[in-house]
Write a structure and sequence with these properties.
about 350 residues, alpha/beta, TIM Barrel, seven-stranded parallel sheet, binds zinc ion
């Protein structure tokens, strides 16, 4: 065997995109359960991939945990938010869940470099996963001057779009540029050093307008290369290059339809090489030190829709088998940690 699993297991694993609170509060999953127990409780539908114990078993040092409120849609999201106030309250309940988990000793919420370093030290002995709070879709920020309120509350990353929002064209629906409100949000973010900009889900037009107005810390928490799957959801070579130029990191999404053009539910699962191909494309453009994981596990798909043999977070450690020598520790987590250390307050 070419590697030592013992060393691998102690290398911090960072996942830059998990909709944990959304899955608890909106989808009714109890993420405090062992994964097998959660699967027993939900025999129908998507097979769950993530619980807090499963993250701990995987050696997940840090997860970017989202505040994700879905907008109202008559078929897809009949209980979704219809007003900025509703979006705000929804995201707040999700943030309160993360704080509740922290009080229960299940996670540590990280908001500063100092907390990160103390947490990583503690993680080596107690294995408790850290959470960094990421807002996916900025509608919960009722007006741009409320950005400071969310930063005070611990939000460290904001992605303005999902589908189109009041702020920006997104991956579907409105794929146009920034709105007037979106330009104001970029100005507010430019003045708020505690919050980074997540380019994931921004439409191509919104992306270029945003990076023209904002030059603070930039990432794509969960986006793949458009070279493999041609959709507004993914990054062109030029967008990837721009994120690299800003010293950002890009998390690979582990959803088969985002890795293999035309893949559909029920098709045979691709193997680890599908993940490696996407990562290698990003690395070719901006270097392996800017490649990370943003799995989006359970973000609208389950374990059957991820590459084989990835059935749970711990299986990501098998990426060491397909990545070039030396790339693994950075990709599994080191690159995200370096990026955070470069700007966290
Ligand atoms: Zn997403």
């Amino acid at each position: 065997m070419a590697y030592d699993w013992g060393v691998n297991e102690r290398t911090p694993f960072v996942d830059a995109h998990l909709d944990l609170a959304h899955n608890v509060l909106d989808n009714g999953l109890d993420l405090t359960l062992p994964l097998e127990e959660l699967r027993r409780q939900h025999p129908e539908g998507d097979v769950p991939t993530v619980t807090l114990p499963a993250l701990r078993e995987a050696g997940a040092a840090l997860v970017f945990a989202t505040l994700f409120a879905s907008p109202y849609h008559p078929e897809h999201s009949p209980t979704g938010y219809r007003t900025p106030d509703e979006a705000h309250d929804w995201a707040w309940r999700q943030l309160e869940l993360y704080r509740q988990w922290e009080r229960e000793g299940r996670v540590r919420v990280i908001t500063s470099r100092d907390e990160l370093e103390k947490h990583l030290k503690a993680w080596e002995s107690d294995g408790v996963t850290g959470l960094l709070v990421l807002m996916e879709g900025a509608d919960p920020i009722r007006t741009p001057d409320e950005l400071g309120f969310w930063a005070d509350a611990g939000v460290r990353i904001v992605g303005p779009a999902w589908g189109g929002t009041r702020y920006a064209g997104g991956s579907w629906g409105d794929i146009g540029g920034l709105s007037e409100l979106g330009r104001e949000l970029m100005a507010a973010m430019q003045k708020e050093p505690r919050v980074a900009l997540d380019a994931s889900h921004l439409s191509e037009q919104s992306f270029w307008e945003a990076v023209g107005l904002y030059d603070g810390p930039l990432l794509a928490s969960h986006s793949n290369a458009r070279r493999f799957v041609n959709s507004e959801r993914h990054l062109t070579d030029e967008m990837i290059a721009k994120i690299g130029e800003r010293d950002g990191v890009i998390g690979t999404v582990l959803y088969n339809a985002f890795l293999v053009e035309g893949w559909q539910r029920g098709d045979e699962r691709p193997g680890l090489e599908a993940i490696e191909s996407n990562m290698a494309r990003v690395a070719e453009l901006i270097g392996w030190e800017r490649v990370g994981i943003g799995s989006d596990f359970d973000g609208g798909f389950g374990a059957r829709e991820t590459p084989a043999p990835i059935d749970r977070p711990a299986d990501l450690r098998r990426l060491e088998e397909v990545l070039p020598a030396g790339a693994f520790p950075g990709v599994i987590g080191g690159n995200w940690l370096r990026w955070l250390r470069s700007w966290l307050p």
